Amino acid sequence: MNWMSRLVEKQLAEAAERGELDIPDRLKGKPIPGIDESRPEGWWAESLVRRERSRVRREDADEALASARVKFWQADSEAALADLVASSNAMIDHVNLNVVDEDRLERLDLADITRRWRDLRG
């Protein structure tokens, strides 16, 4: 080890003792998934494509759900409303099979939607 390396090591050790190298909790990241696994060539491109496809599917589903929600309030009976919500939940289930975990959609709560539908009907 040359004199420069020793100087750098000494300065790093002193900074660590003073706590200058500690990472605040708010800056600590998540562990990298699968860091210990060997990956095939181009794995990152496949991962990027999978995430982008998922994002597009999620955006399309969000638009479809927005249209469905408009129809909820136009339903003329609770049975029709229940059918619309069930149809939307089936679509959500299908979308969730084809998206990454971060893009998963939450199922609609029939009881909550029905309660709000009744409140709007007066």
Question: SSE layout and pairings?
Answer:
Blueprint: H1 3-17, H2 43-74, H3 78-97, H4 110-121
List descriptors.
single chain, 122 residues, mainly alpha, 4 helices, 65% helix, 0% strand, elongated
General description of the model:
The chain has 122 residues and is mostly helical. It has a domain at 43-122. The protein contains 4 helices and no strands. It has helices at residues 3-17, 43-74, 78-97, 110-121. It is elongated, with a radius of gyration of 26 Å. The model has no long low-confidence stretch (mean pLDDT 90).
Shape field: elongated
Rg over CA atoms? 26 Å
Terminal Cα span:
82 Å
The level of helicity is 55-70%
Overall pLDDT level: 90
- β-strand number: 0
The DSSP helix count reads: 4
Content-based structural category: mainly alpha
Major sheet attributes: none
Low-confidence stretches: none
Our estimate of the beta-strand percent is: under 5%
Order of helices and strands: HHHH
